Inverse folding.
């Protein structure tokens, strides 16, 4: 081969080999000296194509003919891509850029997310699925990272992205996520947090506290009891009662956080973003509790990247914030001041579609923070169905209504199904309006597992194939819908002009 010979992808030859028209993702074409790589799609399936020779060509699994190898977009080939094109591998957000957790429930949303991010310096977490979501969609964390890595390659996106093992509660799950390439661990210690303490009456609180080991009580009392701590321009006193409450509520969680940090994060062979989430509680996190946690994390030498308190108000899936915006702003100011003082960033969970609080976050935090969105890319996919295939939309909507009661066991929503217009009253051209209605959004948002995985009497998936055929066939439109929706988040958050 000539040194200066430019390798190109001969799509005519590919069309012949696939026996049909092949779509070349132009932005993916990458020249690695003696080998040129690109991503193509035939029907619903994407393939990696390698032309030329050399080590990367040899390492990729695939079928070779005349110096052109057609390779499956599988896990093994993703690892080869990671070795030769480091930007395809997830990394930690070590420079603490403003960041957004996007997740990709379907494995098809990342190119649209990339579109929305263009022209910003936001650090995206493209791979971000909780165990609950993986179970509902029958996916593994490996698969989630594979899809993100191929999407990054497809779009020629080289600015870095992270992979979040989201809301992990078990040691085994943390070990597995890290082994599979997670660059961020969101530790959910809700199994160690005693939420009942907040409901105790004064006498009960004292009795329960007296039941703690005496040395433990002495330790905390000497450190904190009735002490006043400066927080930003204000101060907070850890009075006896709040200290008793916080010790009882959080001391087991703190031990667990420390254990996870020391075992998995501190000595890891690469940087890991370590997030503490205490947001899965019934009551908002008292700033005094946040301060107590921050002081304890520092004393225990636990370095966290981000912390997600439970903020005041309601953060329900798929719809805007519900609550008093002034109270939210006041509450947020305390949490920001504590986070800044202790050197970590705040994280806001269930952040999709919380448009009314985004400008407040931008104004009050005035710096870097993390916002997690999830599942909103699923709703944009359903919007696409409503726009392009009314029959499929109606069948999915009907199925969602049947399974809503079951799905509700897994999500906190206050959906009023009676307020959702009956399908029979809505013409095809108006179906898309369901996606702008809070009650219908929640109906469709939480039933995704049933819509994607349910089967008929013969064991065939009810909607999954038709759904993905449409989504991939109309991928340009799907990316536009996502770009529009996520850009609205980024602009209001102050992350994008
Ligand atoms: Zn959360």
């Amino acid at each position: 081969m000539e040194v200066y010979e430019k390798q190109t992808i001969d799509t005519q030859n590919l069309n012949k080999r696939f026996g049909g028209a092949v779509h070349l993702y132009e932005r993916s074409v990458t020249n690695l000296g003696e080998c040129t790589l690109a991503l193509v799609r035939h029907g619903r399936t994407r393939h990696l194509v390698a032309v030329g020779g050399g080590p990367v060509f040899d390492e990729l699994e695939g079928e070779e003919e005349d110096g052109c190898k057609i390779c499956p977009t599988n896990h093994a080939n993703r690892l080869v891509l990671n070795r030769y094109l480091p930007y395809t591998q997830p990394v930690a957000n070590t420079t603490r850029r403003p960041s957004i957790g996007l997740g990709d429930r379907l494995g098809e949303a990342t190119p649209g997310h990339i579109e929305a991010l263009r022209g910003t310096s936001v650090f995206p977490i493209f791979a971000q699925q909780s165990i609950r979501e993986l179970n509902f969609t029958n996916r593994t964390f490996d698969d989630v990272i594979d899809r993100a890595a191929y999407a990054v390659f497809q779009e020629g996106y080289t600015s870095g992205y992270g992979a979040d093992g989201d809301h992990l509660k078990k040691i085994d799950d943390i070990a597995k996520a890290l082994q599979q390439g997670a660059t961020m661990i969101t530790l959910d210690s809700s199994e160690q947090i005693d939420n009942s303490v907040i409901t105790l009456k004064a006498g009960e609180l004292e009795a329960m506290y007296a039941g703690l080991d005496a040395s433990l009580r002495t330790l905390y009392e000497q450190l904190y009891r009735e002490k006043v701590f400066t927080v930003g321009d204000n101060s907070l006193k850890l009075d006896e009662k709040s200290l008793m409450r916080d010790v009882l509520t959080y001391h087991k969680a703190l031990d667990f956080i420390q254990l996870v940090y020391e075992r998995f994060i501190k000595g890891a062979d690469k940087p890991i973003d370590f997030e503490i989430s205490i947001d899965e509680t019934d009551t908002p996190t008292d700033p005094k509790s946040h301060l107590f946690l921050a002081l304890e994390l520092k004393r225990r030498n636990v370095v966290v990247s981000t912390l997600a308190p439970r903020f005041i108000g309601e953060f329900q899936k798929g719809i805007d914030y519900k609550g008093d915006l002034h109270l939210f702003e006041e509450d947020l100011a305390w949490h920001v001041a504590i986070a800044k003082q202790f050197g970590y960033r705040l994280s806001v969970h269930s952040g999709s579609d919380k448009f009314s609080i985004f400008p407040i976050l931008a104004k009050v935090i005035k710096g870097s923070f993390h916002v997690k969105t999830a599942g909103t890319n699923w709703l944009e996919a359903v919007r696409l169905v409503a726009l392009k295939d009314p029959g499929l939309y109606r069948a999915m909507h009907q199925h969602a209504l049947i399974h809503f009661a079951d799905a509700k066991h897994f999500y906190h929503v206050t959906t009023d199904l009676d307020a959702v217009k009956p399908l029979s009253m809505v013409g095809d051209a108006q179906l898309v309006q369901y996606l702008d209605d809070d009650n219908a959004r929640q109906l469709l948002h939480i039933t995704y597992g049933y819509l994607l995985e349910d089967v008929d009497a013969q064991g065939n998936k009810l909607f999954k194939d038709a759904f993905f055929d449409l989504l991939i066939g109309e991928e340009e439109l799907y990316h536009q819908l996502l770009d529009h929706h996520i850009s609205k988040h980024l602009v209001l958050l102050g992350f994008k002009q």
In short: The pocket of zinc ion is lined by residues 167, 277, 279-280, 308, 349 (CB under 6 Å).
